[in-house]
Design goal:
five-stranded parallel beta sheet; 19 strands; 2 domains; 31% helix; alpha+beta; FAD/NAD(P)-binding domain; 403 residues
Length: 403
């Protein structure tokens, strides 16, 4: 029995059935792979085209625990699996691997097709508990009251992020009921709430080519830098580079982390200053507000004007050197003070979960209950963005099925 029909559950089902086991995936949703459909903005960053050491280096929480799993099923194996089974892939910036079609549905369809081909069966039921006697798995009970006997169970229920996809934390409850320690859950790869708020015009504005620097004010050091897409929100900051940054923010507390945003990373301060002087000169009798349209998205201008403290109606010819320096400073270093992560339900990944100390890394079997295995996000493993989380789900699933 495999509880959960997500990335880990589907892969575990395929390999378990191919091993000759009488295999069933128990999925509460009417369709499998619900979370995969929405991953990577609907494109599904299925793995990273890198070696095992790079995956481990991009897994800040218990990366070394994955060594045996990644050796059993590496990123190269993932790429080979999908391409061999009719789903061509492509590699993009940072080694991120996507289906050539840019459709996550192709990844899910390939997995489901292979599940059926392997002989694994999918049952649409909800597991209420795992039954064990004398430290050995005996079966599962459904919410209907029915009990089904089995000698092996793989818990592949995912984390607690995106609960509408079925990831509502059931796996933690099952594990805890059988004596396992659950490392406290927290969001990872998640948007950030900030002290400063953007106006309604800027809410949802996507800035495609910006740079960020995250500073830990307690340790007085930079903990993360990145370049790419950032989304402005009423509550704070979101987007790919912000979600990646969140994984580096440990022991979150209000005001501990500062995010500095460079709106013009392609230009040095000197070059940008020359550009600003030119735009002010060309605008001359025009207003400061209108001139900013040559440098910034319209939706951001109202907030930017307020931050600069300069009247939006002030003529460009009247802006002095100190005011120009203020404008330049904001464009190169727009600062936001982080107050908290957004709720766990909005996170891509759940950090925390079943303690790796209670799982055999060579088989993924529980050290407490014979016949009980774990795979995927339910384990206390936390990777950065870039396809590493899905790869860890595949790798632990394959190793569990072999175990």
């Amino acid at each position: 029995m495999i509880i959960g029909g997500g990335a880990a559950g589907l892969m575990a089902g395929i390999f378990s059935a191919q091993n000759g086991d009488d295999t069933y995936i128990i999925e509460k949703n009417s369709k499998v792979g619900r979370k995969l459909y929405i991953s990577g903005k609907g494109r599904c960053n299925v793995t990273n085209n890198c070696d095992v050491k790079t995956v481990i280096a991009n897994t800040p929480t218990n990366g070394k625990f994955l060594y045996s799993a990644l050796s059993a099923f590496s990123p190269a194996d993932t790429i080979y699996f999908f391409e061999k089974n009719g789903c061509p892939l492509k590699t993009e910036r940072g080694g991120r691997v996507f289906p050539v079609s840019d459709k996550a549905a192709d990844i899910v369809d390939t997995l489901y097709r292979m599940v059926k081909k392997s002989g694994c069966k999918v049952i649409n039921e909800t597991v209420s508990s795992i039954v064990a006697e004398n430290g050995t798995v005996k079966g599962v009970t459904f919410t209907t009251g029915e009990m089904v006997l089995c000698d092996k169970i793989i818990v592949a229920t995912g984390g607690k992020s995106y609960p509408l996809t079925g990831s509502d934390g059931d796996g933690y409850r099952f594990a805890e009921s059988l004596g396992h320690t659950i490392i406290p859950l927290r969001p990872s790869l998640v948007p950030l709430e900030t002290e400063e708020h953007f106006g309604y015009d800027a809410d949802g504005l996507l800035l495609k080519n910006v740079a960020i620097q995250v500073t830990d004010t307690i340790k007085n050091k930079c903990v993360y830098t990145d370049f790419g897409e950032l989304e402005l929100k009423r509550y704070g900051l979101s987007g790919a580079i912000i979600r990646s940054a969140s994984a580096h923010m440990k022991n979150m507390e209000r005001g501990r982390y500062i995010v500095k945003i460079d709106l013009k990373p392609a230009l040095s301060e000197e070059v940008l200053d020359h550009r600003l002087v030119r735009e002010l000169s060309l605008a001359n009798a025009g207003t400061y507000y209108v001139m900013l349209k040559t440098l910034l998205p319209t939706a951001l201008i109202e907030d930017f004007v307020k931050l600069s403290g300069i009247s939006p109606e002030k003529r460009c010819s009247e802006i002095n050197k100190a005011e120009r320096k203020k404008i330049l400073g904001l464009m190169k270093c727009l600062t936001r003070t982080v107050t908290d992560f957004r709720p766990l339900e909005e996170a891509i990944v759940t950090s925390g979960g079943v303690s790796v100390k209670e799982i055999d890394p060579k088989t993924m079997q529980s050290k407490l209950v014979k016949g009980l295995y774990f795979a995927g996000e339910v384990i206390d493993i936390d990777c950065y963005t870039g396809g590493f989380n899905i790869q860890s789900a595949f790798s632990t699933a394959v190793l569990a099925s072999k175990g």
